[in-house]
Amino acid sequence: MYVTNRVSRIRKLSKPNQWSYIPTELNPADAATRSVPPDKLQDSMWLNGPPTLNETSKDLVDTDFPLLNTEQDKEIRPNVQVMKTGLQESTLALTHRIERFSVWKILVNTFRRLKIFAKTFQKDKTDDLSTSYNATENFVISNIQSEVFSIEINCIRNKLPLPKTSRIRNLNPFIDDIGMLRLGGRISKADIDFKLKHPLIIPGNNCYISASQSPPFSSVGIDTFGPWSIVTRKTRGGQANSKRWALLFTCLSTRAIHIEVIEELSLSSFINALRRFIALRGSIKEIRSDRGANFVEVCAIVNGRPIVSVSSDPESPLILSPAMLLTQKAGCYPAPIGTFDTKDLYKAQWKRVQHLADIFWQRWNKKYLQTLQTRRKWTDSSPNVKQGDIVLIKDKNVSRNAWTTCIIVNPLPGHDGRVRKAEVRVARNGSTYTRPISEMVLLLRV
Hints:
Layout: H1 2-13, H2 30-33, H3 38-41, H4 45-48, H5 94-97, H6 104-120, H7 133-148, H8 150-157, E1 174-175, E2 181-182, H9 194-197, E3 219-234, E4 239-251, E5 257-262, H10 267-281, E6 286-289, H11 298-303, H12 322-327, H13 342-368, E7 390-393, E8 404-413, E9 419-426, E10 432-436, E11 440-444
Parallel strand pairs: 3-6
Antiparallel strand pairs: 1-2, 3-4, 4-5, 7-8, 7-11, 8-9, 9-10
Helix pairs in contact: 6-7
Organism: Mytilus galloprovincialis
GO molecular function, one term: nucleic acid binding
Pfam families: DUF5641 (PF18701)
C-alpha cells in the first residue's frame, strides 16, 4: 500500500519526461535480485560495475536534465527566511553584584542589613531569614556556589558522577547538612577541626582585588640584619674591629630593595638611615616593620617635634607638639622599668621559641594540609573485587608471564566500603597472603 501511494503521488506531481530509466544491462543491482551462476559471477557487473565506467568521455551520451522550478514543484521544500526578535529579561546575578564591594566584611554586613529590612515586611513567618553574621556569610557563599557549580551540585544530589570537565572533580566535593558545597579531600580522618578538613569551595574568579598605581617605595617594609665585624682602623700594634648592621627597605609593590648601613642598633642610627632613604627615594606613605627594639619609640620622637616656633620666654617652657595634642600631657619620656639579668633573657627566648612553634603548626594546618586534599588519580569508581575472583600478583623481580595466580579469599573493605586490600590464596601451593589491590591484576570475575 505504501509503494502504491508513493507511485501514484509521483505520477501525479511529475511528468514522464522527467524520469530517468536504467536499463537491465547497466544495472548491477539485478545480480542481487536475480540469480547469477557462480561461473559468471567473476565477470558480472556485481564485481566490475557497469560497462559505462570503462568508457571514455567521447563514448558517453549526453543526457539533458531540465532544471526544476522550485516554486511550482511541491516535492521540494521551499526555503523561507524568517526574522524574529527575542526579549531577554535582564537579571543581575549575585556574582556581578559583589563586584561593587572590595571588602568582604562590608559585603556581608550589607546583605545582613538587607535581610533585616526584608524580615520586617515578611508575611510568611515560616521562612528562615537568619540575620546573624555567620548565617548571612553562608547565604552569600551558597548563592555563589549555586550560580557557578550548579551542574556539580545537581550531580551530587542525584548521586551521579561529576563530569570530567568539572574543575572540582579532583576535590571529591560533598554537600553538608546546611546545603553548603565543601571539599571532601583525602584527610577526612585527620584529627583537626571540621572546617579545616572540609573548607567551603569558592570559585577563584569571584575574588576581586583593587589596586592603585603609586610610585616605588611608597609603601615599604623595614628590617635589620647583622652584625658583621669589620676593620675600622689599623695601627702598628694591630687593628681595631667594629660591628656594623644593615637596614633593609623593601618596596611592598615592586619588591625592590634599598640597604643602608648603620653603626649601632639605636634610635639615632635608625632615624639617620631613614632620613637618608627619604632623601634618595622620596616620601613614604606607609611603613611596616617587625617592631624591633630600635623602632618602638620612633613614633614618640617624631611626634615630639614642635609644630610652632620655639619661644625663648622662660615663663613658657612647654613646647606645643603633636604628642601633647594626642596625649593631653606634657612631653616626657618614661623612666626605665627596671634592671634585667640573664634569666629574663632565657624567658624571652623560651617565649619566642613557643611563638615560632605555634606559627609553624598554624601554617602546617592552613597551608600544607590543604595540598593533600586534591586527588590526582583514581577519580573514577570501579567495581570492588569479590571472593572467588582470580587475580595475578605483581612481582618486580620476575617477568609478567611468571606472575603468581591467586584467588581472592577475603576482601577487606574500608570505612567507605571500598576494597583496598584482600586476602589471596596461591593456586599452586595454597599459601595465603594479604595484598593491596594496586598489586593485583584482575583476570576473571566470579
